Amino acid sequence: MKAFSAPGKALIAGGYLVLDKQFASYVVALSSRMHAVVEGAHTAPEESNTVITVKSPQFLEGEWSFVFDHSSETFTVSEVLGRKNPFVEYSILTMLKFINPQFASKIDITIFSDSGYHSQENVTVKKSQSKQFAYHTAKITDVPKTGLGSSAGLVTVLTTALYSFYISSADVTEKQHLESIHKLAQVAHCQAQGKVGSGFDVAAATFGSIVYRRFDPSLINELKSGVNKSEDSQQIQDLVKQDWNIRNDRVALPSGIRLIMGDVKGGSNTPKLVQKVLKWRAEDPESSEIYSDLNTNNMKLVDSLSEITKAEQDDHFSYAESLKQIGNLNTYEILKSTNASIKPFQDLIKATLEIRKNLQIITQRSGAEIEPPQQTQLLDRCNEIKGVLSSVVPGAGGHDAISLLIEANALENLVQAKKEDTIFDKVEWLDLTEQEYGIIIENVDSYKEFL
Ligand SMILES: Nc1ncnc2c1ncn2[C@@H]1O[C@H](COP(=O)(O)OP(=O)(O)O)[C@@H](O)[C@H]1O
Ligand SMILES: C[C@@](O)(CCOP(=O)(O)OP(=O)(O)O)CC(=O)O
C-alpha cells in the first residue's frame, strides 16, 4: 500500500495570458490536497481482465470500477457500476496506454480530498491524529466547488498512484518521473474536459508553486486513436518522451510573507469569461498593447518577489526590520515611504496595482467581469489594512475569491477588519497556506482509520 497527495492552486498573476504560450504566469500551490491510497497486485496468469476500482468515500455513490479486457484489440475500459467519472476514466485509460500492461491486475485506490476544494455545508468531519476529512451527503457532481482545481488534483494524484503501481521502483518525486506524470495527467485532464486549457492547475498539482508557461495545445490535439493497441501505446510513450517546452520554475514566497485567500461566496463561470476575453482580444486593436503591459507587470511582480527573497538572504537583520515596518503600514503608506530597504515591497505593490488597472480595462472593454466594481471596492479596502501588500482577483477573476499577499502577522488585522466593516460580510478568510511542493509521498498509516 502506498499513499500520495497533490495540492490545489491559485493563479496569482497571469490569468488569460497563460492561455497563450508566449506568456508566463505565477501559480501558487495551496494546502488543500487531494490524496490517493493505492493497493494492487497482478492477478493469476489465466485472468484476462484488469479491474481498477476508485473509491471516493466522502461522496454519495463515490465508487467507480473500470474493467480492461487485455484480449481486446483497443484500449477501452467499461465501468461496471453504471456510473460516470470522466476524470477517473481518462486517468486510467491514459495510464493503460502508456504502460500497455501484459499482466492483468487488481488495483484499489481510495481518494480523499481536503475540505478546501468543496463548500462545507452539511458535512460530517472525521478525524484521526494527523488527518481530517469532511464527508458529504451528496454525489461529487452535486457538491459546490470552491475553485481550487479538484479535477486537476484528482487526475494528478490518481495518475501518480497508478504510475507508482506499474513502475513500482520509481520515486515519483524525482524530476524525470514528475515530468512523465505531469504529461500523462495533462493528457487525461484535457481529454476528460473535452478541451485543451492552459493546464496551470495540473502543473501546480504536480510541481507545486511555479512560474508556469504552457505547452503547445497541438501536442494533445493531435493525438488520435490508433488502429491498434501498440500504435496507441507508442503514441503516448513518444509524447511522454518529447520535450513539451513548458516553464515550471519552482518558486516560494519570501519568508514572512503569506498568501491569504478570501472566499467571496459568489461564483463565476470561467469558460464564459474566457470566451468574452478571447473575443475582445481578437477584435480590439489595442488588446495586444494591454496584454503586453499586463505581462510586463506580471513579470515585475515575480521579480519583486525574488528581490524580496534576495534581500532576506543578504541581510536577515535588516530584512526583519523591513518586515516589521511594512507590518505597521498599509499599501498606500508603504508606497509613500522613503526608506530604501522597502523598495522591493514597493515594486511588488506597484506591479499589483498596474496588473489590476489592466484587468479593469479588460473588464470594461470585453464585458467579462474579471475585476467588476464590487471587487475593485473590496480590493481597495483590503489595501487600507495594515500589513497588506497586494490584493487581486486570482485566476479568471470574477466573484469567486480574492487573494492577498500580506506580512505574515497581519492576518489578525484582516480578522479584525471583518468584524468592523460590513464590506467584509461576504468574505471568508480561508485556512489555506502556500505549498512549495506538488506531488508528495504520504505516510500510509495516517489514512488507515479512514479506509
Ligand atoms: N474527490 C473526488 N472524488 C472523485 N472525483 C472527483 C473528486 N474531486 C473532483 N472529482 C472529479 O472532478 C469533477 C469536477 O471537475 P471540474 O468541474 O473541472 O471542477 P474543478 O474546477 O474543481 O476542477 C467532478 O465532477 C469529478 O468527476
Ligand atoms: C482564465 C484562465 O487563464 C485561468 C482560470 O483560472 P481559475 O483558477 O479561475 O480556473 P477555474 O478553477 O477553472 O475556474 C483559464 C485557464 O488558464 O485555463
TrEMBL record:
Top EC class for this record: transferase
Keyword set includes Lipid metabolism: yes
GO molecular function: ATP binding; phosphomevalonate kinase activity
Domain of life: Eukaryota
Domain GHMP kinase N-terminal: 142-208
Keyword list, A-Z: ATP-binding, Kinase, Lipid biosynthesis, Lipid metabolism, Nucleotide-binding, Steroid biosynthesis, Steroid metabolism, Transferase
GO cellular component, one term: peroxisome
Catalytically driven reaction(s): (R)-5-phosphomevalonate + ATP = (R)-5-diphosphomevalonate + ADP
Biological processes annotated in GO: ergosterol biosynthetic process; farnesyl diphosphate biosynthetic process, mevalonate pathway; isopentenyl diphosphate biosynthetic process, mevalonate pathway
UniProt xrefs under InterPro entries: Erg8, GHMP_kinase_N_dom, GHMP_knse_ATP-bd_CS, Phosphomevalonate_kinase, Ribosomal_Su5_D2-typ_SF, Ribsml_uS5_D2-typ_fold_subgr
EC numbers for this chain: 2.7.4.2
The keyword Cell cycle belongs to this UniProt entry's keyword annotation: no
Pathway where it operates: Isoprenoid biosynthesis; isopentenyl diphosphate biosynthesis via mevalonate pathway; isopentenyl diphosphate from (R)-mevalonate: step 2/3
Similarity field: Belongs to the GHMP kinase family. Mevalonate kinase subfamily.
Protein name: Phosphomevalonate kinase
Organism: Wickerhamomyces pijperi
